[in-house]
Design a protein that fits this description.
By secondary structure, this protein is an alpha/beta fold. It has eight helices and seven strands. It folds into three domains: 96 residues, no CATH class; 89 residues, no CATH class; 62 residues, no CATH class. Strands 4-3-1-2-5-6-7 form a seven-stranded mixed β-sheet, with helices on both faces.
Length: 251
């Protein structure tokens, strides 16, 4: 039993280290709050952790035996490790494709844009026409303003396309502009908690205490929803400077 436990412990430590390095790098680079929540990254992480930290070491505990020939034991563990590496690679690739690139303000809403939302043609156009705000492989999440183009015909074409399932302006980084330039228009969209549409009375009630701790008065227009996938968070701004004071989970 001691041999099995030693093999299990070594396998568990190695698996945990590998998982921590990969997921830690992705979290620190791209998935800090609220990215991990809005992208539902916990689902992918849970599956990968189940295979790499639970299933893999447990199988080693089962198959490890001092009576088994060394070559056979090495082969069995190698098979287990291969499955773990494949699972970790799949999970890392999934998280990489879904990594948050932009938190956008466009027209009247805040919305998360993930890497998978921007196709290769738009990336190339942005790198040519708007290199400072274009996405690159090393780009970290940025808050940006995504206004419709000044050309009325082009703006109408984008709006019409988005209505019928085409690309929206938030998926066209060639049109992105610095966050600070959109603050005047952002101010016009802020509302009180009571003004926020799409929240149930229970959700609004759960947000009252966090807002009170931030000293946000019930009459203060400081809030706007941030959308990402099927989830939302409430972004609380300073009414004066429009700096972000807090990003609150909606329960």
């Amino acid at each position: 039993m001691k041999f099995r436990l030693t093999a299990f412990g070594l396998h568990l430590a190695g698996s945990a280290c590998a998982l921590s390095v990969v997921l830690g790098g992705l979290y620190l680079g791209w998935y800090r709050w609220p990215g991990w929540y809005l992208t539902s990254a916990a689902h992918v992480v849970g599956i990968v952790a189940l295979v790499d930290v639970v299933l893999g070491p447990t199988l080693t505990l089962v198959i490890a035996s001092p009576r088994k020939p060394r070559r056979e034991l090495v082969r069995d563990i190698a098979i287990i490790v291969t499955v773990q590496v494949v699972a970790l690679g799949y999970g890392a690739a999934t998280l990489w494709r879904g990594r948050p690139l932009y938190y956008t303000f466009s027209v009247n809403r805040l919305e998360l844009v993930q890497a998978a939302h921007i196709d290769a043609d738009e990336v190339a156009l942005a790198q040519q026409q708007n290199p400072q705000l274009a996405p690159y492989w090393h780009s970290r999440p940025r808050w940006i303003w995504a206004p419709l183009p000044e050309n009325a015909d082009e703006a109408a074409r984008i709006v019409q396309g988005a209505v019928f399932g085409g690309k929206d302006v938030i998926e066209m980084p060639r049109y992105f502009r610095p966050w600070q330039q959109g603050l005047a228009k952002l101010r016009d969209q802020l509302g009180t908690l009571a003004d926020i549409k799409g929240l149930t009375p229970a959700a609004k009630q759960s947000l009252r205490a966090p807002l009170a701790r931030l000293d946000v008065a019930s009459t203060e227009r400081a809030c706007l929803l941030l959308w990402g996938g099927g989830r939302r968070v409430l972004v609380v701004f300073d009414p004066g400077s429009l700096s972000i004071r807090a990003i609150l989970m909606i329960r």
